[in-house]
Amino acid sequence: MTLQPITHLRHLDLAVPDFERQRAFYTGVWGLTEVARDGGLAFFAAEGSPEHYVVRLRRDERKRMDLVAFGAATSADVDALASRLIAGNVSLVHEPRLLDTPGGGYGLRFFDPDGRVVEVSSGVSPRVHRKIEEREAIPVRLSHCVVNSDHPERLRAFYERHLGFRLSDTLYSHRMGDLMYFMRCNRLHHSFAIARGPHVSLHHASFEMRGVEEYMRGTGRALRAGTRLTWGPGRHLAGDNTFSYFHDPHGNTVEYTTELAVVDEDTWHPDRHDVDDQRTQDQWGTADPMSEVIAKEQFNDPDVLFQAPPV
């Protein structure tokens, strides 16, 4: 297996009770395109992304994060990852096999130490996508996924050891210690991040816009649609990206962002950013200062753990 088997973030899968309301939000408000539907499953693409889908919704009585999916370079990397996970006594949901989701491919699923399901796949056929035009305020791609963990140090070590993620930066507090680890699998500052939280859950899913103009127009469209803004607009220090955090109809935090930093692997050194410095959370000073109330907005509901979704 290559030292860095994970190439990129593919998609995030969510289960929700009010399936139709969630479908309407991701198409009518958030700007994704529904590309496939099969009963209680719906698949949504970002028009600027070659991924067949970046969000999958599944109808279920329980709200949960079904899984987070990453890409691998080759089927050999998928097989080698499976062998490494088995040798490390990591519980597999299923061994490498052909996938029957849009785009196909070859992949496996397993539980990370927190109990969430992770999928890693290769050979997924690219989707015909297009250039997002100037002032077109829809997502280009899925930017990153952030999860809450009550054991973030353990989770960071797992993703570094088994999936080859590298630490880009850390948020910390003198009172509470390390609060967030930003992890990269390519030159983007982070595709995955781990936040210290009271329980295991989705912190937020972030969607990249074409530029600041499109990011602001998308933020405005969501606001005009009555979507609840929980934080922003602003610009983080770690990653240097813009942020507008909203709640989807089931209380999951979704973010519009743009201009995420691209790092030089040969020269980058992880930094530690103090959250008590207001510039760490928002360089612009346009968002409300980070507070306990704002932080709780991203805690989300406790997730369903060590139980694989039915599909």
Can you describe this structure?
Strand 7 (106-111) and strand 8 form a beta hairpin. Helices cover 19% and strands 37% of the residues. The longest helix has 13 residues, at 75-87. A 9-stranded mixed β-sheet has the order 14-15-16-13-9-12-11-10-17. The mean pLDDT is 97. It is α/β, with parallel strands linked by helices. The chain is globular and about 50 Å long. It folds into 2 domains: 6-122, Roll (2,3-Dihydroxybiphenyl 1,2-Dioxygenase, domain 1), CATH 3.10.180.10; 141-297, 2,3-Dihydroxybiphenyl 1,2-Dioxygenase, domain 1 (Roll), CATH 3.10.180.
What class, by secondary structure content? alpha/beta
Number of helices: 6
Strand line-up in the sheet with most strands: 14-15-16-13-9-12-11-10-17
Rounded mean pLDDT is: 97
Which percent range fits the helix content?
A: 10-25%
CATH homologous superfamily designation of the largest domain: 2,3-Dihydroxybiphenyl 1,2-Dioxygenase, domain 1
Low-confidence stretches: none
Q: In CATH terms, what is the fold-level topology of the largest domain? A: 2,3-Dihydroxybiphenyl 1,2-Dioxygenase, domain 1
